């Protein structure tokens, strides 16, 4: 396959991959952030200590993390079709991508929140700060660099997930690699597709690292 034939396929595949990853990341952050915070708050010694709730949420998150994505993808076909109306195409793949990434991101959020100095929490608490105030004024701002790193890691994972989704009708670069690279024995196209995926992952990491450095500089300036 010549470059002129590859280019439109790679362009469309990249657009579909970015579309899936972007929206799946948004849903994962919206779903995983409160779950991760809840895991910290309801744990032993937490502001909302509730061991039964913590155990239930922890089990749900662990189950979600333990399922291989390709199996989750197939298992969610009926649910995806119910939500979107179809189980093929980039829009349909957002559903399993997000569901697969939410528990992963929740654990990263939990780790980031636990790194916050508990002394700051106690100081705000002693001044009569509510739980919501502590979350908004202490936990999230203090954990922000770690949360950005967690989002970056989630984006990279979702790029890999999206490539697997291409094997079952998800479109994107994974689908193009399977259809035009693997099935047609076009090694050159396969290698170029892999190179594009590597570039996407590298760019995501560079952007994430840049934001973290910017936050670190602002933190030093503020102090």
UniProtKB/TrEMBL annotation:
Q: Which domain of life is it from?
A: Bacteria
Q: Which residues form a coiled coil?
A: none
The answer, when asked if Transport is one of the entry's keywords, is yes
Instruction: Please report which protein family the annotation says this sequence is part of.
Output: Belongs to the binding-protein-dependent transport system permease family.
Query: What name does UniProt use for this protein?
Result: ABC transporter permease
The organism that produces this protein has a lineage beginning with:
Bacteria, Bacillati, Actinomycetota, Actinomycetes, Kitasatosporales
Main location as per UniProt: membrane
Q: Where are the transmembrane segments?
A: 20-41, 53-77, 83-106, 146-168, 188-208
Where in the cell does this protein reside?
Answer: Cell membrane
Keyword vocabulary terms for this entry: Cell membrane, Membrane, Transmembrane, Transmembrane helix, Transport
Where do the ABC transmembrane type-1 domain residues begin and end?
A: 14-208
What PROSITE patterns does the entry give?
ABC_TM1
Question: Per UniProt, what is the membrane topology?
Answer: Multi-pass membrane protein
Query: Which organism encodes this protein?
Result: Streptomyces lichenis
Tell me the Pfam families matching this sequence.
BPD_transp_1
> What SUPFAM superfamilies has UniProt attached to this entry?
MetI-like
Entry keyword annotation includes Transport: yes
